[in-house]
Design a protein that fits this description.
heterotrimer, A mainly alpha, B mainly alpha, C alpha+beta, A: 2 domains, 75% helix, C: alpha+beta, 5-stranded antiparallel β-sheet, 22% helix
């Protein structure tokens, strides 16, 4: 069969990608206190301990607030940017869009450090709010990438047709463009929520004393006895991410189907 | 006579882009410019003295520790990039040429999932796998193959390369896949028709046309890897700092912001120069418009 | 520029209008769209260079030209999607300068049809009725009627994105016509359809236009489509109207070689002008000899280069095997270079005998394949018959 060698290689590659992640549920449900084979027995204790942990609950709540706010802010800003870049020609367009998309190729440590320096210099108290500022910034390029695809797959004459049929510019946007890019908007929201939920560096430097899930995980890594709980927490995080991504992918595909476009697959 | 329509469109476009633009200026451009400015200032006690100096750069560029850290960062990033791109290419090729169109979205989804799940957790898992009491060591001792845990698994450059190569693997596949998808299939048939073997067709047609994707993949992996903070902390155990850790240490632990800024700017300059040289070397592939 | 309908047929050989009474009626009707000295720039690019035209109420009007000639820009200017830099656009006697597209009494059928993919067929058709004060039931009845008019009765509940090209086109028509606009603008509406469907829709569009009586303005690059459908056609090149006439006149009396070349096929033979008086011009045409032409057979804008030319359509000449009798007023000997068989027609490339024994440049002659008529062979001699009245002088 054509490409069977390649197929075997691709499957091996997928296993390499997923194998470490598969360790998470294995050890999260393993009753042994050290992370080692052979496995001891089945237990849900680690999940119980996780739920009972006060700091963890606080970290979870913080992460939720941060992820929700960042997702909403980034998507709103992303709608403006994606619409501007797909529909209008304006001076310095490449430069402006380049600046907005820059966090995509800038190491997060640079974003975090420079933002931290400025925030400290103007005397802003570090809190989950400052994390939201940073996460909005790094989620923005992803929302623009998703939303630009959504806006781009729209025929420009749809908007003109609505305008021609007596609607105003705003009502044409509301009645035609918005419903058609809605799957893209939902997809962008879910995507930035996922990114924010998992993000460590910016949260680590900008959260002050407030824990988030990733910074909590980081703080516990040097204590071997906390590792099983972290495995449980990691399992929960990964499952949440996969669920969110599946929903995001569902909406992205629905958006493609709705505008009658061709599915090229993937988010990027 | 100039066009009124163009002006109106430009105005509307600028108005539309202004909210995200203002946000990016305040949260990104201004901080980056601040860093740049700080790198030319003097460090005083508890505060930055606003006096122009090149002393920070002189100190950074003559610092043997910085040379070592930068060399390590570059070495790790090169190794990771090479491994990632080389391993990713066959997968991208498989996705584009072997997988039937209706199954492509599913495969891409499977490959991108790890990319979106917590990077910290993926790095941490390698610590769990390679650690002193980690999966490999405890399993091997448990089975009686070794008496003492193997010390060479963790806290070295190889471990960092493995971890980062795994963490950035999906980054490399997508750009190459996109480039391969753009190749007009009849070009390959033309290659075969003109008498080339399958392998030579790949070498003379497919690969050159896929190069823009390979170049993009290289940069997408190289740039974040060289600025990675978490892996040296966890996998390098803090004893193998890379440039990001050095920046952070100067900024926070040593509270020498001008020095930290000069480090950051220098590192960014080096990355930019390496990237530009790389783009320049590949310019003949990038000019091709399909 | 010629912007009124001249019902009195111009010079002799121009064919009689296919529907003289319709032209007479149209000329009597009031102007619906008037463009006066309309200029439009995109940056430095001069897209419309002084457009002057009047389109009358109830007329089926076409803007015809190659891509980039400004025809779509002119249509979008009338619709209000593009502003103009100078000049006036009047619709129904009202200056449109300050009227945006959504307030103009025009509706558009887009090249892509722009059917809203998230709505059903009925919702698409009812889209423009949102601000209509009528009751829901009345609107639904209007939608049904509009769908019936375009032959889509019963399609209301279908999802719009599942329709075929021809059906989308009909939905686009219904959606625009339900608003009873004064002008319907059609931007290359048939270009996305296959040939059979296109020919069918041409006939349907004409019927629909006669039925609703609304002014239609069609943009097309397809000269055949324009000739079939239009009451009048404006041929545009480089932002200017090269000729504005009804189809018969455009075909038989093109004002310039460029128009003649764009519409159908025209043969050109170089001429020498011998003498000229108040009534006629005496010319010597390569291959045809000396001819007296009345001034009415001289094209208004003449040749684009210096060399004067005689032009004639392929069907303006007959060709028979040498020796067969024919009735044409003038006859020349010729050699057949090429025979191309089209089923109903045969096209011949022939070279005409010159007085000095040489042969002229090849000319194309078409003949209907009547039962029993021989098709002369390549390389054989033939007789070509013609009449001076079918020639046009470009100088």
């Amino acid at each position: 069969m054509k490409g069977s060698g390649l197929r075997i290689y691709a499957i091996a590659y997928l296993i390499f990608l997923y194998a470490p992640i598969l360790l998470l549920p294995i050890f999260a449900f393993n009753s042994g206190t050290i992370i080692a084979f052979p496995l001891k027995g089945f237990t849900a204790d680690w999940f119980m301990q996780m739920l009972a942990n006060e700091t963890l609950r606080r970290a979870f709540l913080n992460s939720l607030i941060i992820a929700l706010s960042s997702a909403i802010f980034a998507t709103c800003l992303g709608i403006f940017a994606a619409r501007a870049s797909t529909r209008f020609d304006f001076p310095a367009k490449t430069g402006i869009m380049g600046l907005i998309m820059l966090p995509l190729v800038l190491p997060e440590i640079i974003v975090a450090m420079s933002l931290l320096v400025v925030l400290l210099a103007i005397g802003v108290q570090l809190s989950i709010f400052t994390v939201i500022l940073g996460h909005t910034l790094i989620c923005l390029p992803y929302t623009i990438a998703i939303l630009s695809t959504a806006f781009n797959s729209l025929d420009k004459s749809l908007e003109e047709a609505a305008y021609d049929l007596g609607e105003t510019k705003w009502s044409a946007f509301r009645l035609v463009i918005l419903p058609l890019v809605m799957p893209g908007i939902i997809s962008a929201l879910l995507m930035s929520f996922t990114i924010s939920l998992d993000e460590f560096i910016i949260a680590f430097f900008l959260a002050g004393n407030e824990p988030t899930l990733p910074t909590y995980i980081f703080s516990q890594l040097r204590f071997p006895k906390s590792i099983p709980v972290i495995m449980a927490l990691g399992t929960v995080l990964v499952v949440m991410s996969i669920l969110l991504l599946t929903v995001a992918e569902y909406f992205r595909r629905r958006g493609v189907a709705r505008t009658g476009g061709q599915d090229h697959g993937g988010f990027l | 006579m100039s066009s009124t329509r163009f002006d109106a469109e430009a105005r509307q476009g600028l108005a539309m882009v202004s909210p995200p633009l203002i946000y990016a200026v305040l949260m990104l451009a201004a901080p980056l410019i601040t860093i740049l400015a700080y790198s030319f200032f003097k460090d005083g006690y508890l505060e930055v003295v606003r006096e122009f100096t090149l002393e920070n750069y002189r100190a950074v560029w003559s610092d043997p520790i910085f040379h070592k850290v930068m060399a390590r960062s570059l070495g790790v990033a090169f190794a990771v990039t090479l491994a990632t791109v080389a391993l990713a290419f066959p997968v991208a090729y498989f996705l584009s040429f072997v997988v039937p169109p209706e199954r492509k979205a599913l495969w891409i989804f499977l490959i991108t999932i790890p990319f979106w799940t917590s990077y910290l957790i993926r790095v941490f898992l390698w610590k769990v796998i390679l650690g002193h009491n980690g999966v490999i060591n405890s399993t091997l001792t448990g089975l009686g193959f070794i008496d003492e845990p193997l010390g060479f698994l963790l806290y070295n450059v190889q471990a960092m390369v493995i971890t980062l190569a795994h963490a950035y693997a999906p980054f490399a596949i997508l750009p190459i896949y996109v480039a391969l998808e753009k190749i007009d299939r009849s070009l390959l048939e033309a290659g075969r028709d003109l008498g080339e073997s399958r392998l030579m067709t790949f070498w003379r047609v497919t690969l050159p046309l896929a190069m823009p994707g390979v170049v993009a993949a290289t940069l997408i992996v190289f740039i974040p890897t060289i600025g990675d903070y978490v892996t040296p902390e966890l996998i390098g155990g803090g004893k193998m700092p890379m440039v990001a850790n050095m920046v952070q240490a100067n900024m926070l632990a040593l509270d020498n912001k001008p020095m930290g800024s000069a480090l950051a700017v220098t590192a960014m300059l080096i990355v930019a120069v390496v990237s530009v040289i790389f783009l320049f070397l590949n310019r003949r592939f990038l000019r091709v418009k399909q | 520029m010629n912007d009124t309908i001249k019902v009195a047929a111009p010079a002799t050989p121009a064919r009689k209008p296919k529907a003289a009474t319709r032209y007479a009626e149209l000329q009597a009707s009031k102007p619906m769209i008037e463009c006066r000295e309309v200029h439009k720039y995109y940056g430095d690019y001069h897209a419309l260079r002084g457009i002057d035209l009047t389109i009358r109420e109830g007329e089926f009007f076409s803007l015809l030209g190659p891509s980039g000639c400004g025809k779509t820009t002119l249509l979008r200017t009338i619709a209000g999607f593009e502003g103009i830099n100078s000049g006036v656009v009047l619709i129904d006697d009202k200056d449109m300068a300050a009227v945006p597209a959504n307030k103009r009494p025009t509706n558009m059928v887009f090249q892509s049809y722009a059917i809203f993919p998230h709505l059903t067929v009925a919702e698409n058709v009812a889209f423009g009725l949102r601000r209509d004060p009528r009751s829901k039931a009345e609107k639904a009845a209007a939608v049904d009627e509009a769908l019936k008019m375009v032959g889509l009765a019963g399609y209301g509940k279908r999802a719009a994105h599942a329709l075929s090209g021809g059906q989308r086109q009909r939905v686009a028509l219904a959606r625009a016509l339900i608003l009873k606009p004064k002008v319907l603008l059609l931007d290359e509406p048939l270009s996305a359809l296959d040939r059979k469907m296109r020919e069918q829709m041409q006939v349907e569009l004409i019927k629909l236009q006669r039925q609703v009586g609304i002014t239609f303005v069609l943009v097309t690059h397809d000269q055949e489509e324009a000739l079939v459908m239009s009451d009048r056609i404006a041929v545009m090149f480089e932002g200017q109207i090269a000729q504005l006439d009804y189809p018969e006149a455009l075909y038989s009396r093109p004002v310039s070689r460029r128009v003649a070349d764009f519409i159908g096929v025209m043969n050109f033979l170089p001429v020498t002008i011998l003498s000229e008086d108040a009534d006629t011009i005496r010319v010597d045409v390569e291959g045809l000899g000396e001819i007296d032409l009345p001034h009415s057979q001289v094209a208004a804008k003449g040749a684009d280069d210096e060399q004067p030319m005689i032009g004639f359509r392929p069907e303006a000449m007959n060709i028979f095997p040498e020796g067969q009798p024919q009735t044409a007023p003038r006859q020349n000997g010729a050699v057949i270079d090429e025979v191309v068989y089209y089923g109903d027609m045969t096209y011949y490339d022939a070279r005409l005998d010159e007085a000095d024994g040489t042969l002229s440049a090849p000319v194309r002659i078409s003949m209907r394949n009547v039962f029993g008529r021989d098709i002369p062979d390549v390389g054989t001699r033939a007789t070509v018959g013609w009449s001076p009245s079918s020639l046009i002088l470009f100088r």
